[in-house]
UniProtKB/TrEMBL annotation, chain A:
It is a multi-pass membrane protein. GO terms for cellular component: plasma membrane. Residues 190-307 form the Na+/H+ antiporter MnhB subunit-related protein domain. Its main location: membrane. Residues 13-78 form the MrpA C-terminal/MbhD domain. PANTHER family: NA(+)/H(+) ANTIPORTER SUBUNIT B (PTHR33932), NA(+)_H(+) ANTIPORTER SUBUNIT B (PTHR33932:SF4). This is Sodium:proton antiporter. The chain crosses the membrane at residues 5-23, 54-75, 95-115, 152-169, 190-210, 222-239, 251-270, 285-306. InterPro entries: CPA3_antiporter_subunitB (IPR050622), MnhB (IPR007182), MrpA_C/MbhD (IPR025383). It comes from Roseicella frigidaeris. It is found in: Cell membrane.
Amino acid sequence: MILDWLLDGMVALLILAAALWTLAAPTPFAAVIGFVGFGLLASLAWVRLAAVDVALTEAAVGAGATGVILLQSAVRLRRGAAEVAAATPGRATTLLAGLLAGGLGLGLALAVLALPATVPGPAAEAAARSAEVGLGNLVAAVLMAYRGLDTLLESIVLVFAVLAVWAMGPDRHWGGIPGPRFARQRDGPLALLARWLPPVGIVIGIHIAWVGADAPGGKFQGGTVLAAMWVLAWGAGLVRPPSVADRRVRLVLVAGPLGFLLAGLLGAVLDGSFLAWPAALGKPLLLLVEAAMTLSVAAALALLVVGPPERRA
Amino acid sequence: MTEALTLLATIILGSVAAGLWRVLRGPAPADRLMAAQLLSTGAIAALLLLGAATGDPALLDVALLLALFGAFATVAFVLGARLARQR
């Protein structure tokens, strides 16, 4: 008991220290390293709160993918140092924003402490009926069945995010190859790692996506791992990003949301309501949509890291 | 046994805290990156111990992800530093 308090207290203190240091970091690079460390510790905190699904998401999407996207932004922003300095808010604005955010955090903490021991809501009923969906993992059941519409919209947001990044490129590069070019590494640590890690990572990514039906995991976490493995091979110059006009890329990007939408319409035809997962086809259809979503998440995150088109195809 | 494993995880996190202090000091980006690596290695060890303490196999998956992204983050930072020098 005391040990649990000690461990949880230490995790909480470390998170606060990482957050403060990230805010006070001297360079953007250092801040991104602090942010990744913060995400790592937050992932530990979610494990301590018995929310392993969230811990996996935090480790993959929070620390991994967001960290790399922030890093890319830091590198790109170096060219516009003057504009960044001009757009950076002054000390008073920063202090005010900090006070507001701190007040909001404090209010949320007090609200959580004031919650009754048993929270009213449909959680108990959802838990009792999750077997009907054919998913042993309650989080997956909620995401795919009870709140399917949220998950569908979330998957569509990813497509829009990629479109927004592509739209950042100048008109003359539209239809070209996105992102910076990396020289092909023939030997050295990067070449070795880029050959050695992806086979392991691809297996782990598919494993995380597959066990999501019955244990913590799922398409977003698994897809992020797959994207990271492609980014690794890209960084070592082993693969090149396809042109943004390539139909196959666009197809993979929308396969998940499109499959989800079609399955939802099938539910409307067979079961009378949109996203109803018809009982006869339930589990296989669900797995098909999850597989397509894993691919689309992987493609979207990889393209977000790569960035807007920068040169002709 | 559960207590012993939790205690070990706590001690490891304590050593991670010392690593975090190293992140604070820097001074070169490489120092900070090494401390972040120590952080991820320590978190993996703590997760494996906690996984054994609670008997939850899902914690092994979290540790696996941290191991993958730890290696990946190092590469990403080196590539980022290389790009920054080119521009």
